[in-house]
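As promised in the previous annual report, we have extended the structural survey to additional targets. Below is the entry for C-type lectin domain-containing protein.
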Amino acid sequence: MVAMKVLVCLLALRLVMAATNVIHEAGLGPAVTNQMFCSRDENSHEETRRCPFPFQALGKECYYFGKNPLKNWQEARSHCLGLGGDLATPSHPYKLYSYILDNFASPAHEWWVGASLNHQRSGFEYITTNEPLRSGDWHPTLPQARPGQDCAYIHPHNQRPWANFPCTNVERFICQYP
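The corresponding structure token record, generated without further manual editing, is:
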């Protein structure tokens, strides 16, 4: 009887592994695997959220990673609004930053997020909540208040997520579903 239970368990494990390989070969990645087989995010032990297509769960937040074509900040925001979301305003910027570094082969691209310079308050804020971005989350020499560098992006080349560019630059972008 014990041998039968062990055999059933091993067969179930092989099925899960085979399904995981199919998912990865299809280019759908670990997020789909986690949604199919796990009720919790493996790294944080927090409940994951179900997200509408084309968004994917990262903890309790839903993101869409726009890679092609590259867009300027306003075009990226329009694209996100068209999907029913907006540019990302992550509650955990380092979690999103780590996800980008771990899951996209080419970290050479920056990613627009939903934060911009509020000229009245002289600081960068999330566009949906007007919450200021924490100063400790910026590249050490930024944000620079140079004219025209009013839009924030995730900077994959250093140890802190935020940096700022001219809004007219074309980059990848991250949408977030409310």
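The chain is about 30% helix and 25% strand. The radius of gyration is 19 Å. These points will be discussed at the next consortium meeting with the crystallography subgroup.
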